[in-house]
Amino acid sequence: MPSSIKYKRILLKLSGEALMGAQGYGIDPAVVHQIALEVKSLVDLGIEVALVVGGGNIFRGLAGSAKGMDRSTADYSGMLATVMNSLALQDGLEKAGVQTRVQSAIEMREVAEPFIRRRAVRHLEKGRVVIFAAGTGNPYFTTDTAASLRALEIGADVLLKATKVDGIYEADPVRNPSARRFDHLTYMDVLSKELKVMDATAISLCKESDLPIIVFNLNVPGNIERALRGEPVGTVVGGVPTHA
Is 20 in contact with 81 (CB distance < 8 Å)? Predict the structure, then answer.
């Protein structure tokens, strides 16, 4: 692995919406292909890569609950949507020549391995990408929390949170173009300012183990690798003082 790479084992968190591209719903194969190529470039550098993907492009549990659906049932439905996205990513990665395993927190042996931490770590050590599906397997927990939990369980060096903007802003930059972007934040900054980049449980998990988070724009090709080289491509949370 090149000495310029700061992190050997990473967990990349993708939103379900990232997979639908310009479509209003579902999975865009072209987007999956582009993400697969980005991940392949990391694997080729010797970086161990795990993924967690949301399910909002297919079904969002909170939205279902808001419309009268039982919250637990809605959340389980959302978890199943993440499995669909995970299988689509696995297909894209394997077509790009990357060995990939999907591990599901909800057992479904016909399509995915059950989540077993030691097996996941072994896959990573062998150069395989591991996609963690179905969140934590429990309702009331987001896929952001699942990403933080899995990152800690596998001993990841960093959690990469892929978004549609180039970091964390004091307000929505789409609605407020003059909103400031933060280069660095502490975990407490994110919690006290109620910045909505990840939920409080996810941030608290990272804080307890001092796991750094990098929030960056996925839509700029090469940004993942640049982030891993320590280039300023987004906002870093944890371990550094606030400069903004």
Answer: no
Which tokens is 55 given?
A: 């399910």
Token pair listed for 150: 């899995």
- What is each CA distance from 205 to 121, 150, 171, 182, in whole angstroms? 20, 10, 24, 21
Could you report the average pLDDT of every consecutive run of 10 residues in the chain (244 residues)? 90 95 92 96 97 94 86 95 98 98 97 98 98 97 97 98 92 88 95 91 96 95 93 86 41
Provide the whole-model pTM: 0.94
pLDDT at site 136? 97
Residue 128 near residue 99 (C-beta atoms within 8 A):
yes
